[in-house]
Amino acid sequence: MNEDEKEPAMTNLRTFRLLSAALVTLSLSATPLLAQGPASAAAPVTTGGWEAYVRVTPRFYSFDGDQGYLQRYRALDAENEDGLDTALATLSELAVQYSSPEPGAAKLELVHTNPFVLNDAWLARFRPEAGSRLELSWHEYQRPLEAFLPTPATNSITYARRYNDDRDPERELYRRRGDLAVTATFAPYVWTDSLRFFRRAEVGLDRRARTGNRHFSWIFGVVEDLVIPRGDSPERWRGRTEAIDQVVDRFAFDATLALAPGNTTRLQVFREEFDNQAPTVTNADIALVSPAVNTQARTIDFIADYSLEGVSFAMEQPMGGRVTVFIDGSKDTLTQTSESPLEAEAEYTGKIRTQSLSAGVSVEATDQLVIDAAAGWAKRKNETPVGTSTESPRTYLIQDRNLSGPFLKSLETKAWGGSLSWYGKKLSLRAGANHESSERDFVRGVGANAIVEGMVVWGARSNPKSLWASASGRVARQLRWSARYQYLTADDTWTVTEPTKSHQLKATASWAAKSGTFGVNGNLNWEDSRNDGFIFQNGSATAPQRMELDATSFGVSAWYGAGETVQVYAGYQRISRDQEGNLVLTDIRRWRPMVLPRIGDPAFGYDSTVTAWNLGAALTFGEKLVVVPSITYTDAEGGIVSAATPVRDYSNIANNALVMAVAADYRLSKRMQVNLQYAYGDYDDAVSRELSGKLQEFSVGVTVGF
Fold first, then answer.
1. Is residue 527 a part of any domain in this protein?
2. Taken in order 659, 7, 158, 168, is the CA torsion positive or negative?
3. Quick one: which H or E segment has residue 471?
4. What's the whole-number mean pLDDT along residues 382-393?
C-alpha cells in the first residue's frame, strides 16, 4: 500500500477510536444534564484529610478486516497474527493527584495520556496557593509505526520499504515531534495591598521541535501540465530523503490590571522564532543532478527562519451610571527569510505587518433595554520583495511558470455595527446590523503563463452587510425556545463561493415534563445563499459565474428517566447540502492571454447527505455499579452532480459506520473504583472497499484514593 492509501487507513482507525471514546464521554457527562432528576451514580471515591488518588487506564485493540496498510502485517506474517493488536496496546492514562480539601490549599497533579501508539502527553500542574499555578506539559509524537510493530514475513514489502529501496540505511523515513510548554500564573494582589491593582500575571514559554527524514516528491517532465516521467526516472528518487530539523520558540507575557474602579485592562507581549536548522534544498540544487525536474517542488519548505513579535491590549471601563466603554488593539510584525526556489544559495527577506484597533460602547438605557455599538479597523501589509521573470535573482512567487495564484500585498478592513437588546421575564428580543468593507491589493504575474488581470477568480473588494434578529423565551418552566434570523447582502465578494445574498435561520427548543422524567430537545439550521456577481472575462470574451447553496440541518433528541436508576436517551440528526453553479472552462489548461472562456455545464454542483442515529442509557445498580451503553449509526453519501461532465464516479462518497460502546464504573471499596470501557466499530465504504474494516477497543482502569 502506498502513502496515499496509508493516511486514509490511519484516519479511519483514529475515527473509530475517537468516536467510541467521545460517545462514552458524552454518555457519562451529558445524560445527567438532560434530566432534572438523574439516576444516582456510584458514590465517589472517598479519602481522608488529604484528597489523593492514582488512576491507571491501559487500552487494548483487536483488528479485523482489511484496514489499509496495518492489516498487511497480519496478511504477510501468519505466525504473528495478533502482533498488531499487541503492538498498538497503550497505557492510555496514568494520573496522580494530591491536594487538601481546604479552599486555597496546595494542589499537585501529574497526568500522562497516550491516546494512540507513539503519542505521549505529560502534564504537571502545581498550585502552591490560591491565585498561583505552575504548569508544565510535554507532548511527543513519533513515526514510523513500523519500528514498534512486529517483524513482517521474509521478503515482504512494507510501506516504508517502498520509499527506501535504494536509501542510505542511516536515512530511514521517520518523523518526531516534541512540544514543551511551561506556564506560570500569579495573582499579585493577594500578596500585598500595594499590588491590589495587579489582578493576574501569566508567563508562558514553549518550544516545538520537529525532526526526522521525509521523502522527496517531485514532478518529472511537464507537457501542458500533464505529468509524465521522462529524463531521469522518478524511481531514482524513491530513496532520497530530506532532513527535518525545525524549532519554534515562543515567549508570552499576559497581565490583567484594574487601573480604576470597575476597570479591567489586559495586556499581552509575545515573541516567536522559527529556525530551520536542516540544510535547505531548492530546485536549483536538484537541477544540478537531474535537469528533468520541474521548477516546483511538492514537499520542500523554503522558509529558512522567521521571527514574529507583537503586542495587544483590551480595556473595559465603566463610565459611571449605565455606560461602559470597550477599546482593544494589536500590532505584530512577521520577518521571514526564504530561499529562492530557482537560485542556489539565494535568500530574500520579507515582512508582514498587521495592525488592528476597535472601540465599542454599551448603554443600559433602562433595566430592560441595552444599546450596543462598535467599530473596528484592521490592516495587513506584506512587504516581501516581488520580482519578475526578467529579474535576477528571481524572488519567490512571481515567475513565468507555476504561478497558481496572485500575490496578496495588502488587506484593509473597516467594520461597524450595533444592536438593541430587550430583556423581559419570559421573553428576550435582540436585533442588529453590521457592515464590513474590505479591500485588498494584488501583485499579479507576468509572462506567457501568468494569470491575466481580467480573469476574475479572486475579487479585490468585499462589502457584506447584514441585518439580524433573535428571540428567546420560556413558556412556564417546561418549554424553552430560541430563534435567530440573518439576512446578508454584498455588492462585492472575495470569491464566487461567498454569497451576495444569504438567508440563515437557527432555532432550538426544549421541553421537560413537570415530573422531570421525560424531555425533548430539537434544533434546526437552514441556509439559502447565492452569488451571481462574478464575471470571468478576457477582453471581449466573458462567462458569468454563479453559486447557489441550500443547506439544512435538523435534529431531535429525547431522554426518559424510568425511576432513579434508569435513564434512556435517543437522538437523530440529518444534514443535507446542495450546492450548484456553472462550470467555466477554457481552451487550454494554463491561463494565457486571449483565452476563450465558455460555460461547460450550466448546472454543475455537489450534493451530500449525512444522517446519524444514537441510542443510549445510564443504568445504576445499587450504590456500587453504573453502566452506560450506547450505539451510534451514521450514513453519508454525496458527490458531484453534472449532466455534461461525467465526474460523479470520481467524487462519490458512500459509507456508513456503526459504533457500539459500553462504559462501567464499579466501586470496590470506599477508596477504590474500577472503570471499564469497550467499543466495537464497523466501517463500510462502498467506494473505497480497502478502507472498510472492524475495530474493537477495550480499556480497563483503576482509581485508588488515599
1. yes
2. negative
3. strand 464-475
4. 62
Indicate the pLDDT class of residue 163, thresholds 50, 70 and 90: very low
> 23 with 704: CB under 8 angstroms?
no
Predicted confidence at residue 693, as pLDDT, reads 80
Q: How many CB atoms lie within 10 A of CB 160?
A: 20
Is 638 inside any structural domain? yes
Q: Quick check: is 580 in a domain?
A: yes
Cα separation, 627 vs 41, whole angstroms? 9
Give the model's pLDDT for residue 97.
86
- Distance in Å from the first CA to the final CA of the chain: 51
Amino acid at 187: A
Q: For the chain, what is the domain count?
A: 1
Looking at residue 455, the DSSP 8-state letter turns out to be B
As a dihedral over the C-alpha atoms of residue 638, residue 643, residue 644, residue 650, rounded to 10 degrees, the angle is 20
Task: Report the C-alpha gap between 657 and 659 in whole angstroms.
Answer: 7
Q: Rounded to whole angstroms, how far apart are CA atoms 89 and 76?
A: 21
The grid coordinates listed for 386 are 516581488
Cell numbers for 694: 472492524
For residue 662, the tally of other CB atoms under 10 A from its CB is 20
> In whole angstroms, what is the distance from residue 142 CA to residue 644 CA?
47
Band of pLDDT at residue 42, cut at 50, 70 and 90? very low
Do residues 244 and 175 make contact, with C-beta atoms less than 8 angstroms apart? yes
Bridge partners, 53 (sequence order) = 97, 705
What is the residue range of 643's domain?
460-651
Give CA angle at 657 (74, 519), nearest 5°.
145
C-alpha to C-alpha distance for 553 and 668, rounded to whole angstroms: 45
Q: Which residue has cell 462514552?
A: 24
CA distance 205 to 219: 40
Name the nearest CA neighbour of 656 among 632, 680, 630: 632
Distance separating alpha carbons of residues 290 and 219, to the nearest angstrom:
12
Residue 600 neighbours by CB under 8 Å, 6+ apart: 583, 584, 585, 644, 645
User: Is the pTM here over 0.85, yes or no?
Assistant: no
Is there a domain that residue 623 lies in? yes
Diameter of the chain by CA atoms?
Answer: 85
> What is d(CA 2, CA 165) in angstroms, rounded to the nearest whole number?
14
Return the sign of the alpha-carbon dihedral for residues 212, 216, 217, 219.
positive
Please report where in the chains the cell 455537489 appears, as a residue: 606
Q: What are phi and psi of 644, to 5 degrees?
A: -100, -25
Convert the pLDDT of each residue in 464-484 to its tens digit. 999 999 999 998 788 999 999
